[in-house]
Amino acid sequence: xxxxxxxxxxxxxxFSNLLANRTTVFTLAIACGxxxxxxxxxxxLLADMSRSFHISVQQVGFIxxxxxxxxxxxxxxxxxxxxxxxxxxxxxxxFGLLSCTLVAVAISPNIIWLGxxxxxLGFSSIVAHLILPFVAQITPPxxxxxxxxxxxxxxxxxxxxxxxxxxxVGKLMGWPGIYWISAGVMIVLALAIRQQLPENRSSSQxxxxxxxxxxxxxxxxxxxxxEAAFNIALIFCAFNVxxxxxxxxxxxxxxxxxxxxxxxxxxxGLVGAxxxxxxGRLVDKWGARRVVGIALCFALSGFTILWLTGTHLMxxxxxxxxxxxxxxxxxxxxxxxxxxxxxxxxxxxxxxxMVINYSGGALGSLLGSYSWVIGKWNxxxxxxxxxxxxxxxxxxxxxxx
Length: 401
Hints:
With 401 residues, the protein is mostly helical. The protein has a single domain (3-198, 207-396), classed as Up-down Bundle (Growth Hormone, Chain: A), CATH 1.20.1250. It is built from 18 helices and no strands. Helix 2 packs antiparallel against helix 8 and helix 12 packs across helix 18 (346-396). It starts with a helix and ends in a 5-residue tail after the last helix. Mean pLDDT is 82; it is low at 1-9.
């Protein structure tokens, strides 16, 4: 038996063991979710941060932008290491670094420190994208949608709860409170991973410079990778345009709510998160590209409802549910398209996909603040629909193979 066949056999065995141990699967889902949640804690807290540092809404809008730029940078420079290094130790070390950056954010004495610390917080929050490519690699293609969808359900639920929890903790303890709590949680997760996650050594012998060079090569050679990445980048850009401005709408005279209520709106999106496993099964049955088209229709409908009825509470809730459903369905479906392209390159394919995706998200965070300053809620919704229309043109006018 040659090395490749032995590797495939080991992957199959690892897959069976992983599914058989529900505690390990649960731990992986929690680790993915709570790591990436750190990127989103600041969204319901922006108004509190602006008051704390005595700065304008436009100035504080750079904080989520810097966090997501840092996240995209971490995806670019750290995630490819998953195709080269032993993943367990890499994940544990990233949790340790993440805990340190959370403390740095919590003790920020001024907006400059907060901006730099937020960048490094995003940079070190990429643990989920060390875990997901590993699971995709050892999962048979005909089950990949179901398995990744199950993990993504846990991840998305954590992201949505992040907004609610941070808003609630911010109300009780001030905005630094959530970062102190999360720093401790990251240490606990590192210990849990150390106990439960098996070692997983890559068969790749590529050097780090070769890994980085291969990113450009994969991007050039894979048109589906480019299409999926820019499609989700536009959708995520529109998504963040909404979320970074929601707190300003809720605190405006239209509603007169506080950051805690803004965070609670994350719970509304649980409807979309709960369907991730179903979306994964639909991808296995119908194909990822078709599901992406359906997801785009949902996202466009959600933003239309937000524009027409967003100043009424029930209309706002309905719009959030449909927008969340469209966003997460498109994210999952496009990600599965990418994982299916080149065997044994899942981490690097995921790197290209996620770097472009979060670059779009960072742009959306920045544009959202400016659109609110310029046009208030009408400006936010007009920008969101414009971005989603570009995504629809890219998708429906693109390749079908």
